[in-house]
Here is the input.
Amino acid sequence: MKNILSMSQLSNQEVYDLIDSAIEFKSGKKSSIGLDKFAINLFFENSTRTKSSFQVAEMKLGMKEIEFEAATSSTTKGESLYDTIKTEESIGASVAIIRHPEDEYYKDLVNNHNLKIHIINGGDGTGQHPSQSLLDLMTIYEHFGSFDGLKVGIIGDLSHSRVAHSNAEILTRLGAKVYFGGLDAWYTSEFAEMGPQMDVDDLCKEMDVVMLLRVQHERLSAEENENFSKEDYFKKYGLNRNRVDLMKDSAMIMHPAPVNRGAEIADDVVECDKSYIFPQMANGVFMRMAMIAAVLEGENSDNEIVNKKRQVILR
Here is the structure.
């Protein structure tokens, strides 16, 4: 596993292996795989949870971080993403965590055989967010022990959410049944192929997992933002205490955050007994440790194969 770019890239077995590895790290497993290695976190969009938890994961694995700020980098002078990453590779970075506004920014990078650095996708445009999806899967798996037959309702700004794209795809593949809620305009044909749209009250009654999404105002048009009413949205689609009371006793409330309290979720629901929002964040460190370790272990395996071939030639 040289790179981790999208959920479609990962087999079901690789997903389960990453979950197992993350749970082992959470249980106290130690690893020195990152000693004497450097990581670079190239975030071209704002981030709190993803960037911070990758930084903590890197430190727990013994890695050192090369500081990078997009606003003060040479990308402001016209340097390409490839040249930026090749530069960081040349000065010693082993792993690059990249968040970029362009969908599938990584395609040209991984097709360029001159790059040896490992790339982990920290989110691409409205495309994929594999580390968030994997930590969500870890959190669900810890609670239910399986995905088969689970009913998962995803409510919110579906069409602009890389979390929705990643989670809907992999949950369906792992045997869960996915349902959707929110504005009709956000329920595109892509999601219709994976599951039906339902009223939010009905979703709350039937789902094992209720997954809320932030309205991504930065990706909406000026007209859409002008016509948006936080109060109306919350009334129609937001998770309030009354809707929580409709949920099964064993049901989970999830949210990738940042949370807009009073928009998609009520303030008093964020940390209620059914909420796993902050446990998700805690699991993010362990899952990101598992992801980094996986690409570095792949590098070690490749080196072992090369060394064995060299030994054969020398003999």
